[in-house]
Specification:
By secondary structure, the chain is α+β, with helices and mostly antiparallel strands. 25% of the residues lie in helices and 39% in strands. Strands 1, 2, 3, 4, 5, 6 and 7 form a 7-stranded mixed sheet that branches. The termini are far apart.
Length: 147
Amino acid sequence: KHKAVSVFVLRGRDILIQQRALEKYHTPGLWANTCCTHPAWDEHAADCAPRRLKEELGITGLKHDYRGQVEYRADVGGGLIEHEVVEVFVAQADRDLSLAPDPAEVMETRWIDMDALVTRIDTRPQDFTPWLRIYLAQHREMILGAD
């Protein structure tokens, strides 16, 4: 098991998703939630979330709300299995949120309506990371709230 942190940046009913850079060692080119990472050895998850959001996407100044812990096990390809214990955070953004993605981490970003994202994952699951599929299939209400 590894400790991990996941962040969902929301703007109303829209979620900011990212397409992972092709240079990533696993799941390159797949769409993921706004940001995911492993905290540094002694780093608290609440400090890790905003740090990594800034590093990957250039996003600063958001309030991160802790939503809970998710544990999952998933095949991420290349013979790798992730077994993660994830602290999940949600941040609300304004319409004018500026992004500066690190091209070594992020190929593209997109705002997408929650329901449209779920529909797209149902129809083309191969385009999305295993963890995003798990989060939305098994933990959507905890992470995003009830519809």
